[in-house]
Amino acid sequence: MVERILITTIAICFVLPPSRSASRIYGQEKPANSESLTAVSEIASNAQAVGMDTQKLAKTTLALQSLVENRKIAGAVIMASRKGKTVLAEAVGFGRIETQQPMKMDSIFRIYSMTKAVTSVAALQLVEQGALALDLPISKYMPEFASVQVDGGAKVAVPTVRDLLRHTSGLTYGIFGDSSVDRMYRSSQILSRDDSNQVLVEKLSKLPLQHPPATRFHYSVSADVLGRLVEVASGSSLEDLFEKSIFKPLGMSDTGFYVPKEKVGRFVDNYGPAESGGLRTIEKAVTSHYLSKPVFQSGGGGLVSTAADYMQFCKMLCGRGEIDGLRLLKESTVQEMSRNQLPKGAYPIAMNGAQRQGVGFGLGFSVVVEPISGFEYVPVGEYGWGGAASTHFWISPKDELAVVVLSQIMPFTYQCESTVKPLLYDAVR
Fold this sequence. Notes:
This protein is α+β, with helices and mostly antiparallel strands. The chain contains 12 helices and 17 strands.
């Protein structure tokens, strides 16, 4: 879940300042950067009303605090919802260690590949409207792809819209491997921030596919191509379509392709592991390229957001396309997108060469297809995805549970998700 991004590495290592000791900030007392007492009381009432164990829920916050204390992360925000009610909302640690700025519930994060689910919803809205068809070749909408070929062969092979959604398009990323096609991607500067979505497609149409479509799962720029497809089918820029059809209806006012000037104070720094232990800053919020509007509106990884905003999106999915009486997708559409869509030969998915046993892919995110050895607490049917800076979301239809956990550390790590997920499922009564 790592996109090609341009970041400035600042070789500064940090430790938690001794003046803000773990016993004062991360002990049994309520962290200073948490919700108000009124909100905390309401959330606790919600949890009890929908069958969540509040004492077990509290363990998730302590577990995240432990990651902060052990300098694994700078900070994190976690939100959980069950049956449409918020049952957990906590912020721990720091958004910016250097200035000791606390992480807050409204902190803004780079969500990278969690953008893919948003692009998928926009595409499926257009499918419902009849502007797109899942099983038509993408060349019907983007003629540039009419003559694309598979690497090493003369056969023309055109992916379908469904192939883009489930990453069976034959496209690649160009940054995870060193195949001849990967090298062509790097030489062509695929995913350049200075290219429009249209220019991206024009570049890709001149390059071969790495694999024949519909034969294997290969994580790729598929969602970015889907972003351009959405623009063509809707007649709008991806930014405008997102705002009109998803962000405004859901009240996602802090989500977009850049951070406006008036919100920079809430934008968090991005970190990486330091060689000597602890953390180092790899991108400061105040000098980030996210402070300016990009030419490239990446449907695969371009958005910034908050936990509360993305939870609105998750609640809509958890509500099978509906939230608070507002319907964004048909129930049947959500059922389709949240079931495994991979052909037999493409299952299970593989990331960086490693198979994820029991995990398939729907129309926009991974789906648990069968029990996973060692992770039996994860229910079949759970779906979700993450982002390059270690952001995560997942939804369990069985439990009517939606979870968003946001941190900012690269390269991608599952540490936050794997720490809190068993605790959250254990709290479901």
